[in-house]
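Posted in: Structural Biology > Protein-Ligand Complexes

Title: Requesting predicted complex, iron/sulfur cluster in pocket

I'd be grateful if someone could produce the 3D structure tokens for the following input. Sequence and ligand are given below.
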Amino acid sequence: MTTMTATHSAPKPNPYFPIAQLQCETDAGIETIPLSEERAFTSWQPTIPERYQRMDVEELTRRIRAARGTLGDKVVILGHHYQREDIIQFADDRGDSFALSQYAASHQESPYIVFCGVHFMAEAADILAGPHQQVILPNLEAGCSMADMASERDVRSAWRELGELFGGTDDIIPVTYMNSAAALKAFCGANGGVVCTSSNADKVLEWAFTQGKRVFFFPDQHLGRNTGHAMGIGDDEMVLWNWRVPAGNLGGAKVEALERSRIILWQGHCSVHQRFSLTQIEEARAAHPGMKVVVHPECRAEVVDAADANGSTAFIAKYVADAPAGSVIGVGTEINLVSRLAKENPDKTVFCLDPVVCPCSTMYRVHPAYLAWVLEELVEGRVVNRIEVDPAVKHDAKVALERMLALK
Ligand code: SF4
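-- Reply #1 --
Done. Output follows.
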């Protein structure tokens, strides 16, 4: 069980939420149990050799450390903020997906990049990596439910419909969040669009409005809406495109709403961040008068509006670090990061706003057994679980990423 309140002494249970509430399907496993005992393992990558499935965390830790030592500079291990401690302890760098990809690309001496994160992140690393570098995702089933809500086929179909409605797409700038498949980044690159992250979405949208009349933003409606609000764009100038509506129905939107729109928002969301609610913030503030609330912009608009601050994972980490000693801070993001921030800031009370603190279930699939397996295979000279983006896709995706990087 994860303890979320930190003090000068040993961590104490969170006084705000009874521990009994901190239950969810994967919660009990935050402290690593053998893969074979994980209830969800049946839906994870099954091809990992059987011997790894029964190893306990001590043995896995020993093996990872030994393989890591043997490989030396040949490998860079990247750990996203939302990875569990038993993984993050081996990371050469930890951060968000884009920063990690840049870190890997700046370590050209390492031919292997092991990305402890989800699929789109490994793709981004492959796009930015040198031609001699190979990217490995420890568990191929570690995807992202948000990224999966925007398939290339559905986005292209929506694009066609928008083109028919507006008599062309020249005035529409496609913007994809980093949390999307490489094919969508390439789509943006090939259509005058760009990629954004949660730290630069405002800058990217400002640029997009210099290029066209309206923005087509995918896959996260909340980041798009929150960024639009921060730029003074009202809800009446934003319209939701429901990708579940059969093609030919304008994503369920009305023609007048589309014609009035400045931002067309794809109806995607992050299953972790969409859990945070206004009620949670109100209850936390009632329990801790004077407390601060910081949330990720993938949260709903009413949650972002009620928070004291919102921003990327890097922003949240800095917000907590910069807060004065004694501060009480409720955080709206994934539990592994909140838990780590609580430990790293023992002079503050840091807790997750969500009383049912599920980790991101797909990030969680990077179990240490998978990391031990891919590293020991590398020691033997074998590459397993390589993520390789098609060269043409890579080229166009790079165009969209470079447009973003040019926006200082
Ligand atoms: S936290 Fe949300 S956006 Fe991030 S990988 Fe998990 S589901 Fe995807």
